[in-house]
Each structure stands twice: as C-alpha cells, then as structure tokens.
Structure prediction request, 554 residues.
Amino acid sequence: METSSIAATPILYLSNGAQYVLPAVTLPPGGISTVDINAALQSQGIAPYAPLFGYVEVQYSWPWDALCATVRNVDPAHSELFNFGVGAAQRSSPAAPSVPIEGMWWKQEPNVTAFVALTNLSSGPLTVTLQSTDSANNPLAQHIATVSSRGTVMVTLAELQAAPTSHGGLSVTYDGFVGDLVVNGGLEDPAVGYSANIRFASSGPLTAKPFADYAELGLMTGAASPMMNFPAGTAFTPYSLVRNVSGQSVSVTPTVWWMSGGTPHSAQLQAVTIPPYHSTDLDAAALVAGAGLASFSGSINLVLDVHAPQRSLVFASGSVDLKNTYVFAVTPVAIKESVAKTLSYWSTGKGDDTMVTLWNPADQAHLTKAKGPPYPSGTVSVRGGQVYDAQHALVEVPAIRLVLRKIVPVIDRAVVRYTAEVVLTYTGDAPISIPVGTDTDTLLAPAQHDRNALVFTTEFSDNPGQVISAAESASSSDHPESQVTVWPGDSVLFLVPLGSRARDDVPTGQVRVSMHRERKVVDGGTDWTESVGHVIQSENTLPLPPPPAARAGR
Prediction:
C-alpha cells in the first residue's frame, strides 16, 4: 500500500494450535517491518532454543489484499535458508470441496532429504493423505496424518533416500474445503548447506484458456561473475524440472535467451513430451550447451512453450553451485501482459544480496518502473529511448571509437585494485558534448537539468555476459564543468574501475569494455532513465594482468 499507513497484528500458531498474539505494527506507506519470531516467542516465556514449528497469520483491515509478507527460516549452523510467502486466506463462498494439491520433489545430489508441512486453517480436524511417486508416477509411499484445528504436522519423506529416480511427484488430498489446508515443503542436505523450497499448487479443473509460455529468468551458468564476490572457483549450473499433473500428455518446447554485446540472442531446442502425471528433468545444462553456450558464463532466461491447458504443470527451476551450497531458486511465471510485479522482501544487509532480473519478451521497448528504497526519490524508472532496425542508421548515437588502452593493477595490502584506461575518440563531423562528471548522485538528481550519462561495462570477452564491473560518468547543464566539448578527432581518457580482488584470487581472461548513453527525463511526475542508441564495444581486448609482486619489507 503506497498512500496510507496500515496497522497489522502478527499471530503465531504453534504446531499444536496454541495461539500467541504479538504486538501490532504500523506500516507507513510503502513501509516494511521485520518481526523477530525467536524474540517474540521468548517474550511470551517460551525458550528460544526449543525445537518449535507452526505458522504465522497477519491480521489487518483493508478493502483489498494490500500487504505482502514473507517468512524467512534461517539455519546459520548448516547454511540453510527457506523463504515462504504468506498469502491471503482463500475461502470460496459457498464453500467448495477440496481439490488435490500437487508438488514435485527432486534430488540435486543423493543425500538430499525432504519435508512437507501441513497446516490446518479450519475450525475442525482434517485427515490429510500425502502420496509420493517417482518420475513415472509409480507410488513410493503414502503418509496419512490428522491435523488439528490451527495445527501443523511435519512429514519427513524418508522414502526419497531409496527412490529409483532423482525426481518425482507429491500429491496431497484432504477431507475439507478449498482453503482449509496450506502445504509447504523443502529439500535439504545440512552436510553441504543445500536447501530449496518445494512449490505446491492446487490442481483444480483445467482451464480452457489459450496455451501459455512460461519464463524462468536469471538462471546462472558457468563461473560466477567477479562482481558478485563469491569464493574463488564458484561456478553455477542451472536446473529446470517439470511435472505434468493432468491426465493428458503435454508438449514443452524450450528456448534459451541470453545477452551478448548488449544484444539479445535465442536458440529454440527440441520439444519434450511429458506423459500424464510424469515428471521430467529438462537438463538445463544440456539445453545451454545445445544452444552453443557450453563455455558461456553469465545469466540466461529459459522460456518454455507449453502446449496444454493451463494448470497442467508444476515447475521447479533455479541455479546451484557445483558444491550444492549456493541455491538460487527461480519462480517460473506465465508470459502475459501485466501492470506490475511485486518482490515482497529484499535485503542487502548482514551478508545478504538480492538479484532482480528484468526481461522484455516483446519485440518493442516497454516501460519499466522499480519502486522502493534506498533510492532518494523512492522511484527508479527505466524506459527505452529510441527503437531502431538493422537497415536504418541510428540517430542520436555519435560516431565514437572505443579503445582499451591498458589495465593498471595496484596493490593495497592483500587486495588488488584494477583500473582500465579507456580512450573515447570522436569521429563525427560536428562538435558534441561528453559527460565527464564523477559525482553521479548530484548530477543525475531529479532537480538537475539536461542530465546525461555514459555507462561503461567491462566483461571477459571469452565469457560474454560475465560482467566484471559497471561505472558511469554524468553531466547536467547546472554544472558546466561536468561535460566537455569534443571536436572531430578529439579523444577523452576515462579511468574505469574494475573492482578489487584478493591477490590470490585474480581471474584470468581477456577484458573488453562497452559503453552506452543514458539520459534522465522527468515526465508526468516520474523520473525516467532512457537508454539512448546502441551499445558501443571496444575495438580491442586486453588481458587482466597478474598482480605486481609484493615489495619486501625492511
């Protein structure tokens, strides 16, 4: 909610249904509040070390569903993390009989185990049946549990240890009404720090809506980007699994999308047919290799063209490192027109990082607005500047040559800091202005006029898409010293920081720099960032030099 404050009351329910009402919190417009559940239980006289579980309810009064909530379970000792969304209570009127809730399990490696939490929101007990199957829908085990009102039962899927396949299905049925039961689950291997959520969805009747494409965005593959500061040698592989929860075969055609040199590329691969109630591992790493990207390091998007009624499939996708310690799950979404997407919680503190991938599936530029702190204005907005085709000259793009002159390493104790010297040479026939200011926060603030920026991106040329660093220069007419006028044949030297690395963790490879222009425009009360023209790449590459030898002390 972005216009009014909302008072919300968190309520904790233990597994036996015991209720603990916590103090209400008031959320300002666009505000966020974090509730420490351990501290809240301790304040209720419950020992913080007790092995408890249950669910949380957030009560508030508003005409529509105005809050987003996330429950974050962290096990620092085993490096495990589970995030579960808190959705609005879904009760139909009149009450509709329950429908199966379908999910999918998979084992990234043989020691992965699984758990499923069954929560009863109704006023009476529920009898719940959980059936696990292998990839060909052969039964593995059946679990029957009675869940008390407002209670939670945790089911451990021990049968997966001896399962003949590495993935399969989960089906939950119960003797209540739609909305009475909430199902969550997770996969884990505490020995290596592996953890991933199991996604569940109500099956319900299949809809007659047109077939849909589903996008799995931001799948990481290959060596981790240096700017993400993962430990040396960290490399990722993507995963993508699909389960057919319908009674008819489903055809899925995967297409891999990736960026190289500022330009999108794609490769459509062979279709896969999934029989009824079967699951399949699409082998995302093989799809990447089939697209000609076997040595690619960076981020890809996997689009699945599904020929089946909607609600026929359950998906699981993401990226995991080779040691199965870092797991980045991705929620597949149907490709369709929409006015907004919501990320209910992000964090960059206490060792956290948040990555957001934006992909435009259309063949024309679209407007994108990202709202939220820490941006001073509360809003960062991006839109396309101009649209061009391959047969027409690009307007507003000056004739510029970009040359990578040299890369300079500097030792700062045990850290190597790199700077690239980039020479921009103007080859047009009339003078132009070039942004050279370094105080970008001031120069690009909404109150400034005629704001422009040059954005420099460095990457390894043999791994397109593996970004090393990004930096920008800026100008505004309110600060004339922030821009210089260049004439045909003039050159400007830019010092582009490439970040820092530990002396014993310096990657190798050929470095290329690219540049594009942006301008800032206030339009209709929104501060827009417009990307103007195309990306200009340096004419050459240079190797990232090894760090200089340490000087002996005296």
